[in-house]
Amino acid sequence: MNRFKVTAIVLAAGQGKRMKSTVHKQYLLLKNKPVLYYSLKAFEDSQVDEIVLVVGKGEQEFCQKEIVDKYNFHKIKAIVEGGKERYHSVAYGIQAICWECKYVLIHDGARPFVDKEMIHRVVDAVQVSKACVVGMPVKDTIKISDEKGYVCDTPARSLVWQVQTPQAFDKSVIADAYNKLLLEEENLSAAGITVTDDAMVVEYFMKIPVKLIQGSYKNIKITTPEDLKIAKILLD
Fold first, then answer.
1. Interval 70-119: pLDDT, tens
2. 169: helix, coil or strand?
3. 5-235: CATH homologous superfamily?
4. Which of 29, 97, 106, 156 is the one with CA 20 to 30 A from 141?
5. Which of these, 164, 201, 168, 198, lies nearest to 185 by C-alpha position?
6. What is the pLDDT of residues 30-59, one digit of tens each?
7. Which residues on neighbouring strands pair with residue 81, listed in sequence order?
8. Phi, psi of 150 (to 5 degrees)
9. Where are the domains of the chain?
10. Under 8 Å CB-to-CB from 62, ≥6 apart: which residues?
């Protein structure tokens, strides 16, 4: 048992337009189980105490029957409807967290290869750093382009990471960050700032350093049909 309560928010509200499928990517079958099943199973079997599942509009009943009940998940304490943007879905997930929760892990349900060891590392790290993300150093050289498509910078590869999920935060930190984001979202949009992950919200509004924790090159996100083919190979 944890001396503190840990909640995982698993996001499954995306439409997955790049998948070019009538079925949302999180429900596509991967070895006869939905993609979403695998990340939920990892959190179910981990030290996480509770799971909040965020789903698309009108999908709560479906997920309760076809995911939670069918696969006998006991740690899913709430299924909430997501919002227009990813950050809206995260905000609704945070609102559903129990008051006793100390730390929050936020994970994309389309990343089926999160595992117990990765979750353990990030839970250990967040107790020290208050904000951390899993990721891996990039293998390729990265180029920064200008608006016309010309290279304007080549950052040192040793300092560049590809960021993954789960991302973990002290509950008070992530809750405050998202409250500020929702108050300022129109100003951010007007300034052309796009929120792409949860660490970015904490960096921008809370000015707290975010610690990078080793994830796995296997921890891919299912976004395109090619990703699904790769995932099937990785499961073999």
1. 999 999 999 999 999 999 999 999 999 999 999 999 999 999 999 999 99
2. strand
3. Spore Coat Polysaccharide Biosynthesis Protein SpsA; Chain A (3.90.550.10)
4. 106
5. 201
6. 999 999 999 999 999 999 999 999 999 999
7. 55
8. -95, 145
9. 5-235
10. 55
